[in-house]
Amino acid sequence: MEDNPSILSHISIGTNDFERAIAFYDQILPTLGCKRIMEHPGAVAYGKQYPEFWVQTPIDGQPATAGNGTHIGFIAPTKRHLLRSPIKRCKTLRFINILPTP
Question: Which of 54, 94, 96, 98 has the CB geometry, 3.0–4.6 Å to 12, for a possible disulfide?
Answer without folding.
Answer: 54
